[in-house]
Amino acid sequence: QRSQSAKNLHERMYDSIPQSLKSELLVKSVYQDSDIQMEGRRLVQSKSVGELSQIHGLSEFPVPSVIERLMSKSDDPNEGTSLSRMSLSNISLSRKSLYSALPKSLTTQDCLVRSRVEDPDIVKTKSVSELATLNSIADFPIPTNVERFIQNRRAKSVDQPRIELSGSDS
């Protein structure tokens, strides 16, 4: 009896698992044109690992064919029904159009670096542990643009005359 109940429990547990988790693993196979494969092999053989790892722009990322088809769809409904393979020139054109659709802030390679100024006298006179301790909120560094903003606000508040409201005027 005990083994029957254990079997029954096992079957009930297996039945409680959704069908999608019990189905056989389905693998999608990808077909790639032999010309594209040869071009890739030549590229890998002609460059070093360091050269292959460098990325110079977003256009070097592979774009899935579904997105390429969406980008290259025309307004003519008859052209959309034919499923013809895209040539390499069409792929590069669609990548360029995808690249040009991105905002300029993502495509430019301007490198903006902020520098940090350290007072050499303080660094020389204090130890690392003294520099690391915080005694008050005044020890926190404030960025210069925030300091300028606060100073401008203070200057404006000093320049403006204060209006005093008193109830004894009448």
UniProtKB/TrEMBL annotation:
Q: Which domain of life is it from?
A: Eukaryota
Protein name (record): Uncharacterized protein
Q: Which organism is it from?
A: Caligus rogercresseyi
State the organism's lineage.
Eukaryota, Metazoa, Ecdysozoa, Arthropoda, Crustacea
